[in-house]
Amino acid sequence: MDWLDDVNFDERGLVPAIAQDAATGRVLMVAWMSREALASTVERGEAVYFSRSRGRLWKKGEESGHVQRVKAVRLDCDGDVILLAVEQAGGIACHTGRERCFFRRLAEGRWIDDEPVLKAPDAIYGARSGKPVP
Amino acid sequence: MDWLDDVNFDERGLVPAIAQDAATGRVLMVAWMSREALASTVERGEAVYFSRSRGRLWKKGEESGHVQRVKAVRLDCDGDVILLAVEQAGGIACHTGRERCFFRRLAEGRWIDDEPVLKAPDAIYGARSGKPVP
Question: pTM here?
């Protein structure tokens, strides 16, 4: 898989990957990919990231069902950032139950939450202890 | 500036910042910001990044003139990625002379350059040695 050799993974073996809604252009989230995560993403056609906190591959939606179907994969000029065009299952990318993770906007010196919670996290992940798996 | 305390800079003191075209929604580029870079971006209303290779603040367009006027600043749920909505001066964000850095798309196992060079780098930066300052 020669195309993987053009990706410049950092000293941890990771690159940031941006998930952008293929239809609306909204930037949904950013997560990290290892070489294996990127290869798996392309093979499956669904986003697979590397969870730094858990130290393992993390298939987006594995718990929430909020899978990201990948329509296009792009690489930047330095080869160290991936841009995915995705179809977001459920219309929810963020573990807070919002459409996307970028729901805070800076306004007059403070961060304002200006995007709604579409589904309560408990309804997505069940009411249980531990951090939800986005 | 309390709002800066909500940003989770990494062990190097940096966060990735995505520049998205405010009008078209196109993702133009990703660069890094230090606390000082982010503060300066908000104060000026124009994107200032931290150049890891040069180890200093880097005002986008300082050499090329391709300044980014910042229309909105967003923060993600983990507080470790910035999303800027920008007006891109000259319509060129990439040091290669393209609209954006994500000009390579994966197609059938290889990266295809599918976006045009709008202006030759020599015409942007002058014909000189050294790496152009995006």
Answer: 0.94
Interatomic CA distance for residues B40 and B37, integer angstroms: 5
Taking CB atoms and an 8 Å limit, are A102 and B109 in contact across chains? no
Question: What are the tens digits of pLDDT across the range B29-64?
Answer: 999 999 999 999 999 999 999 999 999 999 999 999
Task: Name every residue whose Cβ is closer than 8 Å to that of residue B11 and which is 6 or more positions away in sequence.
Answer: none
- Answer whether A95's CB lies under 8 Å from A121's CB: yes
Round to whole Å and give the CA distance between A93 and B61: 33
- The ipTM (two decimal places) reads 0.94
| Residue from A101, A112, A113, A114 to probe the interface with B (highest B Cβ count within 10 Å) | A101
Cβ partners under 8 Å of residue B100, min gap 6? B26, B27, B28, B29, B93, B94, B115
The Cα A3–Cα A7 span in angstroms is: 7
Pairing of strands A110-113, B14-21: unpaired
